[in-house]
Amino acid sequence: MTTLRIFGTADDSIVDGPGIRFAVFSQGCSKTCPRCHNPEAQPFEGGREVALEELERLIAGNPLLAGITLTGGEPFEQPKPLLELAQWAKSRGLNVWAYSGYLFEELRDAVPSPEASELLQLVDVLVDGPFLEGQASHELKWRGSANQRLIDVQASLAAGTVTELG
Ligand code: SF4
């Protein structure tokens, strides 16, 4: 049984990407951004362990979902179970967004781990980079600070250079 440590979930989020989305807040993040948007999700020993089957059952129970969003905490520091969840979601026609404190280039080049790079291959849109208090704005759509990029992952991987959503 595959398990994942999570801070929590949002069953019908409308703020973590387009449409109605199931957001998974993974537990644990090795970065320590000042005024982190979710400081309770930083300790790796916090949160609760959940079976992937439980998340899949919740997602499958909502036919209105456009996709899933992997956020945190740092989802790319638990890449193996989230890779499995992303594969499952894609097989059901759901798109996959992810938020990461790592940059696209770091994830592509397997800086956190080879598994993190594998997970990136399945992501449709990545919001990358840490939350920076000095660049924070409430005017930004789907991101908290202006340094974060909304990246079309598949186009960026194909082109070998970052393509941001318009
Ligand atoms: S990367 Fe995100 S979750 Fe991690 S400390 Fe920074 S703001 Fe918090």
Topology summary:
Blueprint: E1 3-13, E2 21-26, E3 48-51, H1 52-60, E4 67-71, H2 79-91, E5 95-100, H3 104-108, H4 114-121, E6 125-128, E7 149-152, H5 153-159
Parallel strand pairs: 2-4, 4-5, 5-6
Antiparallel strand pairs: 1-2, 1-3, 6-7
Bound molecules: iron/sulfur cluster.
Task: Describe what this molecule looks like in 3D.
The protein has one domain: Aldolase class I (TIM Barrel, Alpha-Beta Barrel), CATH 3.20.20. The chain has 166 residues and is of the alpha/beta class. The mean pLDDT is 96. It is 25% helix and 24% strand. Helix 2 runs parallel beside helix 4. It has helices spanning 52-60, 79-91, 104-108, 114-121, 153-159; strands at 3-13, 21-26, 48-51, 67-71, 95-100, 125-128, 149-152. Strand 1 and strand 2 (21-26) form a beta hairpin. The longest helix has 13 residues, at 79-91. The radius of gyration is 15 Å and the shape is globular. The chain is built from five helices and seven strands; from the N terminus they run E-E-E-H-E-H-E-H-H-E-E-H. It has a seven-stranded mixed β-sheet. Bound molecules: iron/sulfur cluster.
Please give the count of helices: 5
Low-confidence stretches: none
The hetero compounds bound to this protein are:
iron/sulfur cluster
Beta fraction? 15-25%
- Summing up helix and strand content along with how strands pair, one would put the structural category as alpha/beta
* Whole-number count of domains: 1
Q: Could you say which overall geometry the principal axes of the C-alpha atoms support? A: globular
CATH class: Alpha Beta
CATH architecture call: Alpha-Beta Barrel
Number of strands: 7
CATH topology: TIM Barrel
Strand order, sheet with most strands: 3-1-2-4-5-6-7
What is the rounded Rg?
A: 15 Å
Average of the residue pLDDT scores: 96
The helical percent reads 25-40%
**CATH superfamily label:** Aldolase class I
Biggest β-sheet description: 7 strands, mixed
End-to-end distance? 40 Å
Order of helices and strands: EEEHEHEHHEEH
